[in-house]
């Protein structure tokens, strides 16, 4: 609890910024959804035959999982594919259903007798809408806005995965690092925001309910109008604050610590060596980095040869690192117009790990050495390793491994601790994980070259290189500079010691590049 | 008897349909200036439908309905309705408007200035027997059923329309209040010189207010005559209604 409070105090500027970003996403998308959804809902009351198909479409939109929707939007939006634009579009689409539906049902729900009286008194359709239908439907419409807003505040946390910022940035980071403080630091302000929106709009909704006493209705209307004006003002002001775009090199990263460190490293090198301005778009989920590169939204990120070879180019894994690198380089250039820089030096691959003391006692260097002891050992593997093409099944076959029992499937980070605590004797970790050194574990050499190579190297958009040729030299200064052990140390510094990424990278670069 | 020229409202073999169902058919009659025609008939016999043909909430499927010698389909519906006061069956007061705002809807649509509107509201509330001071600023849900119906009548009279349609304005009232309202209304209609079409299924009310009574049965007008003649009518439905009096 005190940890959490301290975190809030220490990072209040950051939290404020993220909250602002979050509010901005929600405010823009809700305003847009209201601006479109209310007129559409009104239109549907005039053409009820359209209501079924329109509501069905918005209903389907709402069932699309948010990450999938973001994924669809990236290629559609071209150079606006990541960041706030797709996030706002997705939130907008999610908000449409409750707003359109409530506008439609709210107006339809106006008593037929009242409507007939209005027509019978000679009101035009507009007069009836403005003087009778909308006022009587207002509380239902506000209820729709309320639902949409609460959904948006929640969904906006996912927008962090596509670089839109907001409180989700903390939540994702916290999930990745299993850091509850970070998760709460994102979740609590988001929850407060949702509750506040729910409460305020709920209050206005009840005040505007038909048949409410006079004064209350008046003040609620006033509050509603002021609220809208304030919201629009907020959007205009924050969009000024948040958008300071100009000519920049955009450096991206995937959503794990190592990637953020590498992204920061590339960014700092470019800033230092070329003086170009760099925009950071870090912590993007799935294959969003690759998509963003193709969409021209991002100029540089660090990729792994094996991932590019199997996951993106869809080849069967092969084991010769040089061949993989050369083929990936060739095909990336011809297929995507993306250039691979020199490898950075380390590999991020599966690491077969045992306890250091055990390795020393039994003199284990390679996986083949260990295979002899396997029948007396228990193994624990992450879900990923158990299920992957290049995971457990082939691995056990190639090395002729038989354990004393069926390997236990466990969470990856738990498997490290299980190994250290001698609950299991062999695990498949991650070769750059800082925990390897911290827990005194030893990586066995893959002497039969079962695992495909996963060399890390920067990928750069050809157009960016043509425009700023000096980036290539800057990045290639890092070629071969980061060993497995160094990458582990950097990861540990950030994950294990909670040090600031920028600082860790700055230290590393000054030790590596000055001489 | 009214002649063709003086007829304010004239039905010429008019019928109305909705959803393939014939609601009224073969309606032919005239209503003269200053007349109070009471439409009588059982529930579902077509009385409300007939009113809606007059203010063009419905267009006739066959035949024609003329108001002031012009077919309703040639009228601009909005202009036509502003000339016709309408008290609907369940009063249809706007729940989000005060009594004052409800009464002043049409004057406001017609662009009257505030002072004139305020004076008119007071005058009308007086006319229907409600104290302006204590009722003008109430909302419909703060009124009794009978008070609401009075406001409904006041609203229909607001812009001083030459024609008034009243669809069971005194329905759902206790017999005493109802009789009182009928008495007041009979005086009112005589002094106002309006053309009034008044719907009821209460034969006593019909006799109390009518200059003529039109009787509906299954969507047809089966009898239309002055009260004295109506009482002597040979028509089976008319006899059934008259007998219910005793
Ligand atoms: N929109 C509609 N669609 C189909 N049928 C309708 C519609 N409106 C009315 N009707 C039918 O037309 C007939 C005449 O209805 P109308 O409302 O004119 O009756 P009414 O004489 O006013 O009855 P009540 O005394 O109960 O008000 C009824 O049988 C009714 O069911
Ligand atoms: Mg009726």
Written description of the protein model:
- With 515 residues, chain A is an alpha/beta fold.
- Chain A folds into 3 domains: 2-245, MetI-like (MetI-like fold), CATH 1.10.3720.10; 249-348 and 453-512, D-Maltodextrin-Binding Protein, domain 2, CATH 3.40.190; 350-444, Osmoprotection protein (prox), domain 2 (D-Maltodextrin-Binding Protein, domain 2, 3-Layer(aba) Sandwich).
- Helix content of chain A is 63%, strand content 11%.
- Chain A is built from 24 helices and 10 strands.
- Chain A has helices spanning 2-10, 12-46, 51-63, 66-77, 84-108, 112-120, 125-155, 168-176, 180-208, 214-242, 257-274, 288-294, 305-312, 321-336, 356-362, 367-371, 383-387, 392-399, 412-420, 435-438, 462-467, 470-476, 484-496, 501-513, and strands at residues 249-254, 278-284, 300-304, 338-347, 350-355, 379-381, 408-409, 426-430, 441-444, 455-461.
- Chain A has a 5-stranded mixed sheet with strand order 7-6-8-5-9. A 3-stranded antiparallel sheet of chain A has the order 3-10-4, with helices on both faces. Chain A has a two-stranded parallel sheet with strand order 1-2.
- In chain A, helix 9 (180-208) packs antiparallel against helix 10 (214-242).
- The longest helix of chain A has 35 residues, at 12-46.
- In chain A, 44% of the residues are buried.
- With 246 residues, chain B is α/β, with parallel strands linked by helices.
- Chain B folds into 2 domains: 1-78 and 165-170 and 196-246, P-loop containing nucleotide triphosphate hydrolases (Rossmann fold); 84-161, no CATH class.
- The radius of gyration of chain B is 18 Å and the shape is globular.
- The relative contact order of chain B is 0.17.
- Chain B has helices at 47-54, 77-82, 99-103, 105-109, 114-127, 132-135, 145-157, 175-192, 203-209, 227-231, 236-243, and strands at 7-18, 21-32, 36-41, 62-67, 70-71, 84-87, 163-167, 195-200, 212-217, 220-225.
- In chain B, the strands form 2 sheets. A 6-stranded mixed sheet of chain B has the order 6-7-8-3-9-10, sandwiched between helices. In chain B, strands 2-1-4-5 form a 4-stranded antiparallel sheet, covered by helices on one side.
- Helices cover 38% and strands 26% of the residues of chain B.
- Chain B has 11 helices and 10 strands.
- Classes of the chains: A alpha/beta (515), B alpha/beta (246).
- The interface between A and B is medium-sized, with 22 and 28 residues.
- The structure holds adenosine-5'-triphosphate and magnesium ion.
- Adenosine-5'-triphosphate is lined by residues 18-19, 21, 23, 41, 43-49, 89, 201 of chain B.
- Magnesium ion binds at residues 47-48, 89, 167 of chain B.
